[in-house]
Amino acid sequence: MDDQVRISEEQFRRIYAAGFESWAQLHSLVIQNTKLPPQCFFTTDTFPLLPAFPQNLELEQFSDRLTASGSSVWASSAAKCARGIPSFRRRVQLEVARKDPILLSISDLAHTDFYSTSWFVSQNDYLVILVLAWAYILSARWAEIMPPPCSLTYTDSLAKHYDTTIKSDKLTVSLCQGPASTFSEALGFLNTFCKRHNIIDQSHAALAAVLLLPCKINGIRPLLLSVFYEHSIECNAITPWFQGTLAAIKSLAGENPSILGRMCMERRPEVACMWLGSTILGLQQELLQHIKYGQIPIDLECAAWTKTIQSFIQQPVSRPFVVDGYIQRADECRLLFLYQSRNHTRVPICQWKPFGTTPKNDVDLEVQVHQDCEGHELQHQAFVWNCAKGESESPSLLQCSRQTYDHSSKPQVQCTVPIVWEGLNREKEGVSENATRTIFSWLRPDGCAPQEKAIFKHEWFMMDDSDEEEEITKEVNSLNGFKDVTKIEEWLAGTNEYFS
User: Fold this and answer.
1) Number of domains composing the chain
2) What is the pLDDT of residues 242-276, one digit of tens each?
3) Residue that is last in its domain, among 152, 184, 210
4) Domain of life, per the record (predicted)?
5) Were 227 and a residue from 55, 153, 260, 267 both cysteine, which residue would form a disulfide, CB within 3.0 to 4.6 Å?
6) Residue 196: pLDDT over 50
7) pTM for the full predicted model
């Protein structure tokens, strides 16, 4: 490294090349195979951990929306640990309805550049019709299960040009004056229609698009943007990773949004169906703007429900935990969050792991006592809904004894595309700088460890409007006040008793 914080010029170029080549391989893959990956289509295995709404769900009403709430239960996975780490809960509030409905409009200028009809069996494009059908079906389903009971009714308003259409000599249309179709009836009509026209695959694609319309955008956006996260990249190296990624997308996908969408589907198959929906809606370029800033949003619950990796905090603690008397700073973060230590109860907003190590005697007490442990990993155990008559635990999570993630690399595809270096810019490391400052501030809220003085005096940590630079570098010894081992044992015993 050039210094204690910034990576060297050679490392910068190497990581840029890795980002470019990673996405260039995806481009080669989608060019060779134009068909959609099987994960784009919904099955019973699609998001099996997603908790379903229970009966008597308690809703909280605000002036413009309704929300449901609950708690996610977290703990460490089974580990060789003499101490044990107590489980903890995180409150979750989900927006389930808004006062103002989402308006769908169909433009005469709409074009299929966002997606390709070659993805589907039938070359006849029914997606617009199917999107409207699924929008109705899901609305009908929610109306039936939402407390208190409500129902759908047809209004007297007509779509633009509707009168002209029904009066056409080519069509015979009779208006239905009966009650609105139920969820089951509407779903049956749709299935019959799709089988007759051989467009079941288009129906899956339309459902994926409609799922992006609801108001839980805070959960959906992290799922989509997780394709740009790479768990091996450290906080001070994300600038070249993103520069290489964007250079590959710009030079290879260009202005073809369907190619970009397919590349993202292949990058993270576990959320391929969501990227299919966003591609149909033409959201690719809008989402692409977010990665230029590096701070991809995190939703820990949605990550667990979909088995996606959105942050280093989800990964297991290293084995061995201590190497030559040092502990990875990323492992410090993982254990401090697992332990819900003071000032570490919130998920780090920076998902990129901190670089470097800390002497084992300088880490916080909650980390020190687990030096001999193996196998600690953040584990989602259950989700508990707040209901009108108490709490209701989601059965889907109870059936899953262990949460696993696929860390395997994608199939290697021969890629002969030369690296385009025009996107490399060493002078613009603001993304890495912000990420580094953010994660180190989360790890060291009370000041730095003794050997980290040079890091916290680095220009990346010097805020222009701050007059308290010296306070950032103050040394904090985690063992101050805990010199007596007997007192430490008593404190731990009391802690375990309190949480048991």
Assistant:
1) 2
2) 999 999 999 999 888 899 999 999 999 999 999 99
3) 210
4) Eukaryota
5) 267
6) yes
7) 0.84
